[in-house]
Amino acid sequence: MTPADRPRRLNLQQRSTLAGEAAAAAAEVESALTPAKDTQAAAFFDVDNTVMQGASIFHLARGLHRRKFFTTRDILGAAWKQAYFRISGNEDPEHVAEARNSALAFIAGHTVAELEEVSEEIFDEGMAHRIWPGTRALAQIHLDQGQRVWLVTAAPIEIASLIARRLGLTGALGTVAEHIDGVYTGALVGDMLHGPAKAVAVQAIADREGLDLSACSAYSDSYNDLPMLSLVGDPVAINPDAKLRAHARAEGWRIRDYRTGRKAARAGLIAGTAATGAAVAGTVVRRQVRRFLS
To answer: Rounded to the nearest 10 degrees, what angle do helices 263-271 and 274-293 cross at?
Structure first.
């Protein structure tokens, strides 16, 4: 069935549920890993600004741009939203939706095999050095305890699985981009894996793997991931935005911030006026576009 054959609109809850179920169904597990010893517990990590500095989909898009998947004009909107994301530390749902959907639209017409091949190169070029060492160490602690570790991200499942594999994690849950006969259509299965959809995906994996969520941990930087964080017995705020930091403090959750050297500048930017923030974001966009062209 093609996208045109489907109902034009689904409500947000339906789309989130479908996205979560699709992510769980498409989840890949690294079969080479030693079987987990603690079969009841697992850890779930958001990726963007939690495991990796910035938005993984932007780094992917940058690499695709260099390989002529799309033009410089196409990347301008994504660059703006990435600048906003990096400066404010907050995820505006509309910005996230537009950035993810536009980025996924860039792969329309390309094959799954093609994306998987270039993603390996892109990870080495623009992602590997952006992994937060502190978060990576937290993930390793869970692995050393014999627990499974999953990435849960709005990025495409293909890139999410690649990151998980390169970090030696159990597997990944990510946004499922529709493909027919191995060719991407530019549409999503349900919606992007964001907010409530992440909670649906985590619950589905827990049911499938026989996990006790009260014994599990979850890590994120964003208040938008509160549905996922609230599912587990050990929620942790990593590099949190202001709303999540306040919530975590009120609930007594652990907080870890690995952005030393950047926090003071970030705090100053957040305290500035909207006009000042927009001007700074515009400067970042121009710099990022220049990097794209270099």
So the answer is: 130
